[in-house]
Automatic annotation (TrEMBL), chain A:
<protein>
    <submittedName>
        <fullName>Peptide/nickel transport system permease protein</fullName>
    </submittedName>
</protein>
<keyword id="KW-1133">Transmembrane helix</keyword>
<keyword id="KW-0813">Transport</keyword>
<feature type="transmembrane region" description="Helical">
    <location>
        <begin position="179"/>
        <end position="198"/>
    </location>
</feature>
<dbReference type="InterPro" id="IPR035906">
    <property type="entry name" value="MetI-like_sf"/>
</dbReference>
<dbReference type="InterPro" id="IPR000515">
    <property type="entry name" value="MetI-like"/>
</dbReference>
<dbReference type="Pfam" id="PF00528">
    <property type="entry name" value="BPD_transp_1"/>
</dbReference>
<keyword id="KW-0472">Membrane</keyword>
<dbReference type="Pfam" id="PF19300">
    <property type="entry name" value="BPD_transp_1_N"/>
</dbReference>
Automatic annotation (TrEMBL), chain B:
<dbReference type="GO" id="GO:1904680">
    <property type="term" value="F:peptide transmembrane transporter activity"/>
</dbReference>
<dbReference type="GO" id="GO:0043190">
    <property type="term" value="C:ATP-binding cassette (ABC) transporter complex"/>
</dbReference>
<feature type="domain" description="Solute-binding protein family 5">
    <location>
        <begin position="79"/>
        <end position="414"/>
    </location>
</feature>
<dbReference type="GO" id="GO:0030288">
    <property type="term" value="C:outer membrane-bounded periplasmic space"/>
</dbReference>
<dbReference type="InterPro" id="IPR030678">
    <property type="entry name" value="Peptide/Ni-bd"/>
</dbReference>
<keyword id="KW-0732">Signal</keyword>
<dbReference type="GO" id="GO:0015833">
    <property type="term" value="P:peptide transport"/>
</dbReference>
<dbReference type="Pfam" id="PF00496">
    <property type="entry name" value="SBP_bac_5"/>
</dbReference>
<feature type="signal peptide">
    <location>
        <begin position="1"/>
        <end position="27"/>
    </location>
</feature>
Length: 315, 536
């Protein structure tokens, strides 16, 4: 088991390095000029050249990458070209807000997906199954941006129950009564896709497990539905965990539209700003942290799986 | 002896006032302002994010030597005294300008404003060897004050600035250059990042709170030196909400009191809900800037004129739900620089078709042209729908336009390179669609027609060169009398229109939507707005 964990950790190292390279190259091959973040559109060529030299953007790309990676390994992601603020602190503040949002959305999505998928699997072919499948198809198909606006129109503007934007009355999100209403609409909007995907996954896994011989054997032994459900849940858990882990990673990185629609000060909002301003250090830093989160989540899922499914320990 | 009733009467009269005070009628007045930017602009002295950012963290916290009159809405503003009470060129050497500084002004941190502070601020953005030099602020303002060659302190209340060449329009550059406190920079450990959260200027507001990307809270500077511009609201909370629909929703929901640039589609809903839409003539134009280099399809003036006559601008304004104004030239027809062009820009399909036929083209035998446009972004209005409208209009008269669609930041690269630059020439791009700020003579007019500024030396993108226009610009640089300056500018603009240098479509009107709680907001005819006029 220990060797398995070490092996997984070692696999993560080249992946993380590849992530740094991709994050760096992606932002450099995109069209546009990094100095647009600070130089006005009509800045003369000499101003642009002086700025390039000042920010080290006139050096060859491999040198820039090496310097950036060296600093990143020490936890220093540089300073935003546009604001001069530390990228590490900017990203960490935004990651906190996005984690809160993604966490709440994941709880809603995973719970709703497991419940709907489980019921649909048990009632396979019946009208409950059809309704659950319909809901899951809607969940994965509906555009985020549109759903966010519809929810805002209904719950913020028409009913006036919830705020339309922002993370709190004073900026930043905290877990208290004053801030809780701010997270409801963005979290619901965000939860729809993982809910749909998990519903479909859980349903398929449950249908598959229920058709297996060991379930027939358990019934023949006289076990009640509740105890059979425990066996089904235990067998479905590894697949559900793997999919839920991927979804959480997706929620961390895939929230640009939702955070923009709700002006939620998270990583999506930050990425949006960095992309349109061509703020390379901020863009690279945010991408890197998000990708590393994804790698870390997958690593955690990989490590957790053998504890849930003993068969994994033998592979 | 007075009766009990008479003795009690004065106290009873005071009762409603006391009651009002206790129930919060005298509580702090707050205006929450949803701004269209994704972050609070730089607060250190020279805001980033373009001309529109000066109203938020520029002219609120700081003052320039020469200011722009932004608290009038019924006429164009003009240059007015800021931290300099007087400015004039030296009679013997017109390159030297003497500025008499306002006395008794203090920065928010209590230190005094004087000639040393002006020199220190010039060094901050123009001398990269100075300890206080800040590359970010420099990059913002240096292109706005290109004429400055040198400067010196004459005495505690007088500063001399020398321009590279005689430049009578130099005062127009100075509203962009803002003065911050040297003492505060020292106090903050000479760290501009720390100054950002505790800036100190002389402006009508002080920064009370800054949460990057989320909010900035400005509080009234009760001791502001210009008593006519003491803020009418105690606190202005700036909230970055880049998405136009989200801004509109926040206003409808009561989370903000003012928003800039509501989504055109939301205008009827906002008006029906009792919200007020305010707009005004704004120095901005949405044009197609033509290349006049050999080989460009736009070299024939008949084609350029036909393009201008082919577009029904009132239909575009309708598309914008009224948030635009048909353009008749580079500047609005009410501007003193408009002149009297003989070419009347309007919708005249018949004449447009006739001009194209004369040039040898028709819808069946169209002229082909490639135009580079942005998919959206600041100043681009409703870029894609508007461009598609123009494309259809031009097709009707026999101009077949193909678009190269890029992001705005990428479009700037194409703009700086000029039509002749490889980046454009290699793709056959012969026109560019980019919203232009036309706030001052240089930004609005001369930089586009001066042959000295042909790209890449400037933004005369299409390579326009006309001896008559160059001579007028030369004359302008040594004409210090404002009415004569206006006459020369009008002549130049007239020539631009008569030459149909661009396809001018609409002017922005810088719309704002206000909740009924906002009792007053004067919208200036400029990108500079005066937030001291907001009254709740």
């Amino acid at each position: 088991m220990f060797a398995y964990i070490i092996k997984r950790l070692l696999y993560a190292v080249p992946i993380a390095l590849a992530v740094t390279l991709v994050a760096f190259l992606l932002v450099h091959i995109a069209p546009g000029d990094a100095l647009n973040a600070i130089a006005p559109a009509d800045a003369p060529a000499e101003t642009i050249a002086a700025l390039k030299a000042a920010y080290g953007l006139d050096r060859p790309l491999p040198v820039q990458y090496g310097l950036w990676l060296g600093r990143a390994l020490q936890g220093d992601l540089g300073a935003s070209i546009a604001t001069g603020r530390s990228v590490t602190s900017e990203v960490m503040a935004a990651v906190g807000n996005t984690l809160s949002l993604a966490g709440v959305a994941a709880i809603i999505g995973v719970l709703a997906g497991c419940v709907l998928g489980g019921i649909a699997g048990y009632r396979h072919g019946g009208w409950v199954d059809r309704i659950a499948t319909f809901i899951s198809v809607i969940g994965v198909s509906v555009p985020h941006y549109w759903l966010g606006l519809v929810l805002t129109i209904v719950f913020s503007i028409t009913l006036g129950w919830l705020p339309a934007m922002g993370a709190g009355p004073e900026g930043g999100w905290f877990l208290d009564g004053a801030h809780l209403p701010y997270i409801v609409l963005p979290a619901l909007t965000m939860a729809v896709v993982p809910m749909g995907i998990l519903t479909r996954t859980v349903r398929a896994v449950v249908v598959d497990i229920l058709a297996q011989d060991f379930v027939q054997a358990l019934r023949a032994k006289g076990l009640g539905n509740r105890r059979i459900f425990r066996h089904v849940a235990k067998n479905a858990a590894p697949t559900v965990l793997a999919v839920a882990g991927l979804q959480l990673g997706y929620l961390m990185g895939g929230s640009i539209l939702i955070e923009t629609v709700f002006a939620w000060p998270g990583t999506g909002f930050l990425l949006n700003t960095a992309i349109f301003q061509r703020d390379l250090p901020l863009l690279q830093g945010t991408l890197l942290v998000l990708c590393l989160f994804f790698v870390l989540l997958n690593l955690l899922v990989d490590i957790a799986q053998p504890f849930i499914d003993p068969r994994m320990r033998r592979t | 002896m007075l009766s009990l009733r008479k003795r009690l009467l004065p106290w009873l009269a005071l009762a409603p006032i006391a009651l009002a005070a206790s129930t919060g009628a005298w509580a702090e007045t707050v205006a929450r302002y949803g701004i269209s930017m994704a972050d609070i602009p730089l607060t250190t002295g020279q805001p980033d994010r373009g001309a529109g950012a000066y109203q938020f963290t520029g002219h609120t916290l700081y003052d320039p030597l020469i200011a722009w009159e932004s608290n009038v809405g019924d006429r164009p503003g003009k240059l007015i005294a800021g931290l300099a009470t007087e400015w004039k060129p030296d009679a013997k050497d017109p390159k030297k300008w003497l500025f008499t500084l306002r006395q008794g002004v203090k920065f928010h941190d209590g230190s005094a404003f004087d000639a040393d502070a002006v020199i220190w601020n010039l060094e901050k953005v123009l001398n990269d060897k100075a300890p206080q030099f800040d590359a970010k602020q420099s990059a913002q303002v240096r292109p706005r004050i290109p004429s400055i060659a040198s400067y010196r302190k004459v005495n505690a209340t007088t500063v001399e600035i020398t321009t590279k060449e005689p430049d009578a329009l130099f005062p127009y550059q100075l509203p962009w250059f803002l003065i911050g406190s040297p003492a505060q920079w020292e106090k903050m450990g000479k760290d501009w990042n720390k100054v950002a959260s505790q800036p100190s200027g002389t402006g009508p507001f002080k920064l009370d709170k800054l949460v990057p990307r989320e909010r900035a809270e400005l509080v009234r500077n009760a001791d502001y030196w210009d008593k006519s511009r003491v803020a009418k609201t105690d606190r202005i909370v700036l909230l970055p909400i880049p998405d136009a629909v989200t801004r509109g929703n926040a206003l409808l929901n009561g989370q903000v009191d003012i928003i800039e640039t509501p989504a055109p589609d939301m205008v009827p809903q906002l008006q029906a809900g009792g919200f007020k839409i305010v707009k005004n003539v704004t120095p901005h134009v949405w044009p197609y800037h033509f290349s006049t280099y050999q080989g460009s399809p736009w070299t024939d003036i008949r084609v350029r004129k036909a393009a201008n006559l082919a577009v029904d601008r009132s239909a575009i304004v309708q598309l914008l739900n009224g948030l635009g104004q048909p353009a008749k030239g580079q500047v609005d027809a009410t501007s003193p620089w408009f002149g009297k062009p003989s070419f009347d820009i309007k919708y005249d399909l018949k004449t447009a078709k006739a001009l194209m036929a004369e040039a040898g083209y028709s819808p069946q035998k169209p002229l082909k042209a490639k135009v580079i446009i942005a998919q959206g972004g600041t100043g681009q209005m409703l870029s894609l729908p508007m461009n598609e409208f123009v494309q259809q209009s031009l097709a009707e008269v026999g101009i077949q336009v193909e678009f190269e669609v890029v992001e705005l930041e990428n479009l700037y690269l194409h703009w700086r390179s000029g039509a002749k630059g490889d980046i454009n020439a290699s793709k056959g791009i012969t026109a560019i669609n980019l919203g232009y700020v036309t706030a001052d003579p240089f930004y609005g007019i001369t930089r586009f027609v001066n042959s000295k500024y042909v790209a890449p030396n400037g933004v005369n993108w299409g390579g326009y060169a006309d001896k008559e226009v160059d001579a007028k610009i030369e004359q302008l640089s040594t004409t210090f009398d404002v009415p004569t300056q206006n006459k020369l500018l009008a002549d130049i603009h007239q020539k631009m229109v008569d030459d149909a240098l661009m396809l001018w479509v609409v002017h922005d009107v810088n719309p704002h939507a206000l909740s009924p709680k906002v009792k007053e907001f004067i919208q200036a005819q400029h990108w500079f707005q005066d937030l001291t006029t907001i009254r709740m």
